[in-house]
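ligand=MTE
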Amino acid sequence: MKRRNFIKKATLTSIGTIVGAEIVFAHMMPEGYVPLALQDPDPFKLFDKSKEMVVLNDRPWNMEAQAHLLNEKVTSNQFMFIRNNGKIPEKIDVKNWKIVFDGESVKESKTYTLEELTSKFKQYTYQLTLECGGNGRSEFDPPAKGNQWTVGAVSCATWTGVRLRDVLEDVGIKDDAVYIGYHAADTHLSGDPKKEPISRGAPMAKVMQDETLLAFKMNGKDIPLAHGYPLRLIAGGWPASVSGKWITGISVRDRVHDGTKMTGTAYRVPCESVEPGEKVKDEDMCIIESMPVKSLITYPKTGATIDEGKKLDINGHAWAGELAVTTMEYSIDFGSNWITCNLEPAVNRLAWQHFSASIAFPKKGYYEIWARATDTQGNGQPMVLPGWNPKGYLNNACHRIAIKVK
Ligand SMILES: Nc1nc2c(c(=O)[nH]1)N[C@H]1C(S)=C(S)[C@@H](COP(=O)(O)O)O[C@H]1N2
Ligand SMILES: [Mo]
């Protein structure tokens, strides 16, 4: 948008300056034509991301971190993965932004402006872990279609907003409310305005939790455009697809929400485990709720070398959906022996926890460090891909890094 207007005004010489060379046949260029060199936006600049982020798709934009980029305790925008199902809204009119509450189970539909939301309700701030349900999909065999996330579709930022529960109480909901579904301002890739790229939701028990927010700030600033500016639903610990970006509406439903990507195989796994590659009937698929226990070694970067006799300090994060992580261990002998790491409690519920360890290696050579978290219910991470499922969700296999001792 901006770019096009700009080009109209810019002289041909100034376009040449931006392209980085003289446009030799500039005088032959049709009026209003945008040189290719300007059409391809640099996604790192566009979204203010580190150049080390990995682009998985540009239509729609999908980008992930590498493990070592996620070393910060609180993820900053430059390392936060982007997962879009449609086109990011182009025009955001913050002054007139509205959120509509409707559905079978509201007493009466009600609309709030952003200004009303922020002034009328108490604000809360939490660190909340958001992991894409498909994080780790690249390891599925037979492969699963979709973005081939490795380990980097997870973040834990600080989110500030109002409790969805408080707003729903103000709206007035009926006793038969079962679920909410969100509606958002992004547009379907087909361009069809009647189609929603995604419209997911959560059952009332999740909606009513203290940490379920309608957020308008991330890490103390306006939410970056790619992450849902100016208003975002945040439901930490559940597949991040529940955390709708660019929210314009919440429907309170008297049934399980049936919006786009709620039904069929989307964000669902077989209710009972299946053989890899097996076809599963839609009615045998269950909606993913809390994410499983998982961890990531964020320091050092895989492939690091250390000197013989020196200890290696490692650190990382561990999380377990709705639960907490109780134990964090590492192994340097391919899982034969496990040694306990230091593990910090979460700053608040649904935030990831930090672990560290200081590792001694017996002699020179190649090693792998494997990390394993266990949650409050005693569930540990599997060593290899667990429960194959058709869409490639919930891979919580242990993270591993390679180390050479010289
Ligand atoms: N409106 C809207 N909300 C959305 C999505 C989307 O495409 N549109 N993608 C969802 C999915 S699948 C994920 S994993 C998270 C990603 O959040 P992020 O891009 O801020 O990291 O946003 C969720 N919310
Ligand atoms: Mo996702």
